[in-house]
Amino acid sequence: MEIRKEELTRYILPLREGGSLPALAEAGDGFKYVVKLAGAGHGKKALISEFVGGLVAKAFKFNVPEIVLLNLDGAFGITEPDEEVQELLRKSEGLNMGLHFLAGAATFDGSVNKVDELTASKIVWLDAFLTNVDRTRLNPNMMIWNNELWLIDHGASLYFHHSWKNPEEASKDPFPYIKTHALLPFAGRLEEADKLMRQAITPRTLSKIVDMIPTEWLEEENSDISPADRREVYRTFLLNRLKNSSIFTREAIKQRQLLLQNPLT
Fold first, then answer.
1. Which DSSP letter does residue 181 get?
2. What is the pLDDT of residues 79-102, one digit of tens each?
3. Residue 44 and residue 39: Cα distance in Å, rounded?
């Protein structure tokens, strides 16, 4: 599992439909990327969520756009006339993250695009595992590209790190927010998905993903927690979450039953 690093060379436009104002840009390899910027919104924590979430999804063999580390220097986007965008770019100098741009992709629509029960169950399990609060019916963060389902935008995962309180307890969170998941109504094989997903990834793979988080994203001013200690917290969280997957699986089953009983709530 290797991650390429490229230099950003051409700013194309801001993607204003995204809450964190990502950018569409071109890198030195000639490809276009959706760039998640370190200076936006939740900053480097959102990059860590995106990075870890995307790599975990890829480890489970889901379709995820290629993740690339992108360096942004002081001259990048200098001709952009929007002052808000200019300020964001200057705050984001250094290492950012890009997702390969899926040209021509269409947003997933649950009323049109059908997903089989097992696939839906696996995606629901994935997002409960990652505590991803942002794959809802209103904002599914899934695309159809080349007639295949692709998962995008994991920046709302691992939300425990915004408060950094009791990560041990957070790793056993049943995650009731799964009730809003776009695919929950179709996820009729959650117990089977739990067994298959636990078999599909190892603690070693999760640990390797955590080791790949760029150290500069783990640095935080005015904090007593070192980057190494932060890395260990992420590692412990993911390993404990996997070990206790029955907790969030049971919650997802319960929330699905409630949803099917009261489909308009």
1. B
2. 888 888 899 999 999 999 999 999
3. 7
